[in-house]
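F.,

This is the one I mentioned.
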């Protein structure tokens, strides 16, 4: 059935009657909200440079400052400062919702104009109250002059021909250019062990991966704010599988060797581009035959791509071991379980599922796409801490309807993708805040009760989605590919229903949800037989990075709480470190009185964990287990949660199983094997500090130890060379008896001090003296020793620039505002001292390379767009004097009193002040002393944190993935 035939046939059907559930009749959703104006100013914490500014944007008063900042910077359309620029949430939501409503009317979804209006009001209410969010491409594109792309996830295909391979490069490039990601399976390409028709030997897929990787890297460096997101999959029976497994493993060894030789191999480093295969996630597609051979210790055949014949046999356990060793060394490859994936495939008559999107949650036909939306689970928690299943089901109903409507007007990056998506109408509804919900309900993430609750919610979500899909099929027709796949699709619906029947509930809350889910699956099976289905797929669990912040979620996707503390932005800049607000609610649910709750929360604020918290029973510790920290979840806890939810998803789950640095290859083998046995569709692991190309905090880690070992080895080498041949010995250049000196008084966050600096006759710095604290105090003694050490280093030829680069941005207390107009903010006394020395003794070119400017130079930049000094003409000083008084540098680290914190219904909970705007990842490092392996955000420079199999920046909402 074609799309046109489907819609024509639907005209005879009764259209949708929309029930009003959330909004109030006779009152527009906007009129129920108190709105306020805010100034959104975003700075790069490293340089202090303002990267974005829009004043007077309008948001509901209950939206956090962080949510409004991210939505303003990411989703408002139009050039800043022009009339076309959106200035508030109302314009953004109207742009999207009115487009959806108009398309619904045009395509015959609604029974009447009144039903269309109710749909518009309900969707608006859900969005402005942060009950759900569409994926980012919807906010970027819908209702604008740009192509109306609504999908974030794409799967491509490539065949064994040069035309197809080159077309793969082109299509992937267009998708990357649009800021999305794609995945594909390379297994159709002949291996390097097979012959071409001309008689030569084929290049093999790994060779062509090299070209695609370079293309992705080029597009990234051409202006993207994050690296290209892509997934490359190879079947385990491909003759080049071992070469594929070793690609990133070998490159990681190369990165380490180059780093030890002095090259810049950090993420974004100038030398990292010389390393290959870094722009993709790699996955091996394993089948049941291989996994059983691993269990039994038997051989496994690698097959020709041309005729399927076995051309080589390998020991299955040895190959599985090599896969696990590679994952241990560099986190790649992950595994995708082919037979499990295709056993739950609703369209097998059309073709097999061979690949996934970059984050592994969307798995469907080649040349297809999926648009996503996620619900905020915490919004459905009643005052009595039970989950409101009926209200949740109603929300799912509205959202699925809207998502299906979007396919009617959506644009796609390639015609094959557009054709497949319009014919099969794959959707990806999901949720966020599961970790926060379970904690608030007093349920441990790694507990039978927590898994039962998550399973029943997931089952209800997908069951309601397919029920609504069957109802839509009665109105506007089933998807075009349904007829040929009807038997298979209904078989999968019965599998979902059977899995729901197998769930064992443990308490009243999950029993209520399970009962409603059971009713929904019964309707799905019955309606499907009669109407068919509008959508081939309905649900996935995506990372929900940026949109999670839009909804003010504590946790992303299926993830547990990352930590028990997080940061909250303040009006005027800076942040507060606060204890997650679900914790007091959880403690109350567990039966603790107000006094004990306060004591426990205070303890968590200070220590970052619950171990030995006053009055907290050890049996309740599991409720507060997190992804990182003192009581981090066991790896199998993550796997079991995924296994509990997987039978109720059309697609899969974006999630990485995190392992400590001490984890062994055997543990990784166990995780991969158990994931297969438990019915997961895909598994990815990450061992702490396994990659070099990442920034590490002072907590340490393997990369840091490797660097120290390399330094020691280098020192030994130098000693050996000096013994053989004395080439150079440093000499000390002492200062003259009488020298020019300057004394500077300063104050950093209220801590006063004095700095005296002496110079050589040529004006170069030769000594410093720092006076802090009372004479004879420990602090004064340490400063004297430090001053002598730096002075001797300067006199032996250590460049001042080296000291400045090492000691600026060093963070410790006291930190904050200074009394120096040239250095308005300082992260520590050392940070201030060496910024001041740079301004006093370094030439402009060297300072500018370090991002250090005087107040006059910053003002000049505001006036002329350049920091360069004015030419030394007769009226230069007059021109400087004529400039307005220099504005203070953008400040993001002001400690603001609690009465100016943005409105929050949970305000007043115990907080710990912090004078620098940190992410939760950085706060956790500060509390625990352990590093969090995450890249720095390429937009604002703050440290990102894991979200599914990607990373998300809590400062500006940027993600490293495709969602």
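My design for it:
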């Amino acid at each position: 059935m074609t799309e046109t035939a489907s819609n024509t046939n639907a005209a005879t059907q009764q259209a949708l009657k929309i029930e009003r559930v959330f909004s109030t009749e006779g009152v527009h959703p906007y009129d129920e909200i108190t709105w306020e104006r805010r100034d959104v100013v975003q700075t790069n914490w490293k340089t202090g440079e303002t990267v974005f500014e829009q004043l007077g944007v309008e948001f509901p008063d209950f939206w956090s400052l962080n949510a409004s900042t991210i939505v303003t910077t990411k989703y408002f359309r139009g050039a800043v400062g022009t009339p076309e620029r959106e200035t508030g949430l109302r314009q953004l939501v109207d742009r999207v919702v009115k487009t959806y409503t108009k398309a619904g009317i045009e395509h015959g979804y609604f029974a009447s104009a009144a039903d269309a209006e109710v749909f518009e009001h309900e969707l608006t209410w859900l969005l402005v109250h942060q009950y759900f969010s569409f994926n980012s491409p919807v906010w970027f594109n819908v209702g604008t002059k740009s192509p109306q792309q609504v999908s974030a996830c794409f799967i491509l295909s490539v065949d064994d021909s040069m035309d197809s391979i080159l077309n793969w490069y082109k299509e992937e490039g267009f998708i990357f250019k649009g800021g999305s990601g794609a995945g594909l399976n390379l297994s159709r390409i002949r291996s390097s062990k097979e012959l071409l028709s001309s008689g030569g030997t084929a290049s093999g897929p790994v060779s062509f991966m090299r070209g695609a990787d370079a293309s992705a890297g080029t597009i990234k460096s051409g202006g993207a704010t994050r690296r290209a997101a892509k997934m490359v999959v190879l079947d385990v029976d491909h003759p080049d599988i071992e070469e594929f497994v070793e690609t990133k493993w070998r490159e990681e060894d190369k990165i380490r060797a180059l780093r030890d030789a002095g090259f810049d191999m950090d993420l974004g480093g100038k030398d990292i581009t010389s390393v290959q295969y870094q722009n993709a996630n790699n996955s091996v597609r394993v089948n049941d035959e291989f996994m059983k051979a691993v269990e039994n210790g038997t051989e496994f055949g690698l097959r020709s791509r041309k005729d399927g014949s076995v051309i080589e046999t390998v020991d299955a356990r040895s190959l599985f071991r090599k896969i696990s060793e590679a994952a241990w060394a560099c986190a790649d490859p992950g595994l995708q379980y082919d037979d499990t994936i295709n056993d739950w495939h609703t369209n097998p008559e059309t073709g097999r599922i061979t690949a996934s999107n970059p984050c592994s949650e969307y798995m469907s036909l080649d040349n297809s796409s999926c648009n996503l939306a996620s619900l905020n689970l915490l919004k459905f928690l009643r005052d009595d801490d039970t989950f409101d299943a009926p209200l949740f089901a109603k929300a799912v109903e509205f959202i699925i309807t809207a998502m299906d409507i979007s396919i009617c007007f959506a644009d796609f990056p390639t015609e094959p993708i557009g054709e497949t998506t319009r014919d099969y109408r794959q959707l990806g509804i999901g949720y966020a805040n599961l970790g926060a919900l379970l904690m608030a309900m007093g349920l441990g993430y790694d507990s039978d009760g927590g898994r039962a609750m998550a399973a029943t919610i997931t089952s209800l979500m997908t069951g309601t989605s397919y029920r609504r899909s069957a109802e839509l099929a009665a109105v506007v027709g089933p998807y075009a590919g349904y007829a040929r796949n009807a038997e298979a699709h209904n078989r999968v619906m019965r599998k979902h229903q059977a899995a729901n029947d197998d769930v064992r509930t443990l308490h009243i809350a999950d029993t209520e949800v399970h009962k409603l889910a059971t009713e929904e699956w019964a309707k799905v099976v019955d309606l499907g037989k009669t109407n068919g289905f509008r959508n081939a797929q309905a649900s996935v669990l995506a990372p929900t990075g940026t949109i999670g912040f839009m909804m003010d979620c504590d946790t992303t996707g299926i993830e547990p709480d990352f930590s028990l503390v997080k940061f909250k932005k303040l009006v005027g800049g800076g942040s507060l470190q606060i204890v997650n607000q679900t914790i007091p609610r959880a403690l109350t649910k567990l039966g603790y009185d107000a006094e004990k709750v306060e004591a426990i929360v205070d303890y968590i604020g200070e220590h970052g964990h619950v171990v030995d918290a006053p009055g907290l029973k050890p049996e309740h510790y599991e409720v507060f287990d997190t992804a990182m920290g003192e009581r981090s979840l066991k790896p199998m806890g993550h796997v079991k949660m995924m296994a509990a939810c997987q039978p109720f998803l059309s697609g899969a789950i974006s999630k990485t199983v995190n392992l400590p640095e001490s984890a062994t290859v055997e543990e990784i083998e166990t995780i991969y094997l158990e994931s297969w046995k438990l019915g997961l569709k895909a598994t990815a692991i990450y061992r702490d500090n396994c990659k070099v190309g990442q920034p590490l905090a002072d907590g340490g880690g393997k990369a840091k130890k490797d660097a120290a070992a390399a330094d020691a080895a280098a020192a030994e080498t130098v000693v050996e060379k000096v013994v053989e041949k004395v080439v150079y010995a440093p000499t000390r250049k002492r200062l003259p008896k009488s020298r020019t000196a300057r004394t500077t008084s300063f104050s950093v966050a209220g801590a006063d001090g004095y700095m005296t600096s002496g110079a050589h006759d040529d004006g170069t710095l030769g000594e410093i003296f720092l006076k802090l604290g009372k004479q004879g105090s420990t602090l004064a003694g340490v400063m004297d020793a430090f001053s002598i050490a730096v002075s001797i280093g300067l006199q032996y030829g250590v460049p001042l620039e080296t000291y400045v680069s090492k000691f600026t941005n060093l963070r410790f207390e006291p930190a904050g505002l200074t009394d120096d107009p040239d250095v308005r903010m300082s992260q520590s006394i050392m940070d201030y001292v060496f910024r001041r020395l740079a301004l006093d003794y370094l030439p402009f070119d060297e300072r500018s390379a370090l991002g250090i400017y005087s107040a006059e130079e910053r003002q000049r930049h505001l006036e002329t767009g350049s920091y360069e000094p004015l030419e030394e003409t007769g009226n230069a000083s007059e021109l400087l004097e004529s400039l307005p008084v220099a504005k203070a540098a953008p400040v993001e680290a002001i400690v603001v009193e609690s009465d100016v914190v943005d409105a929050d219904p949970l305000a007043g909970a115990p907080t710990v002040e912090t004078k620098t705007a940190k992410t939760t990842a950085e706060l956790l490092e500060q509390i625990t002393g352990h590093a969090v392996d995450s890249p720095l955000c390429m937009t604002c420079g703050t440290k990102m944190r894991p979200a599914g199999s990607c990373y998300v920046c809590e400062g500006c909402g940027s993600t490293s993935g495709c969602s």
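Confidence is low (pLDDT under 50) at residues 1-12, 221-226, 694-728, 871-916.

Talk soon.
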